[in-house]
Amino acid sequence: MAAARTSEITYRGRAFNLRTVTARLRSGRQGIWEVLDHPGGVAMVAVDAQGGVLLVRQFRAAVGAPLLEVPAGTCEAGEQPHETAARELQEEVGMRAEHLTLLGKFYVAPGYTSELLHAYLATGLTASVLPADEDEELSIERVPLADLLLMIKRGEIEDGKTITAVLLAAAHPLLAAGGPAQAPPTA
Q: Residue 179 region, left (φ>0) first, then alpha (ψ -120 to 50), else beta?
């Protein structure tokens, strides 16, 4: 446990702020950490009536490559996570969910960021498009849940939030019991 804590914002950006935190540890030593302050976000496992999961493939500058991910996004000021989830689902895959079920929440990388991500299961999907963000070029892919689980096992999905959200969804009683329809793996 740390005491005598100070915090100073050293960078303000569009997506996050960088803060330097200094604290005296119980041992008496001083710790210094750089923390990315993030408003929090959401990730949605959108499952259609046939058991297909809607994913987006998008370029990620931090890794210099496109990744296959669940739809996700950042909470805007004053927006509740379920509102962000509904908006991002429309923006990224052009769908509205009749049911958004919170699967869980987790810190993305607590060693350096405050980002708390809320994972949702989105079902009862109907078409409803909102314009995508200007800096996003997305392609939508539909993968049966069983195939997606195999892709995770084989290391083909490299995005941590996607892996976590899909595993949470697969364990949810609605999907674990076989509904929405569960197609057998094709690979």
A: beta
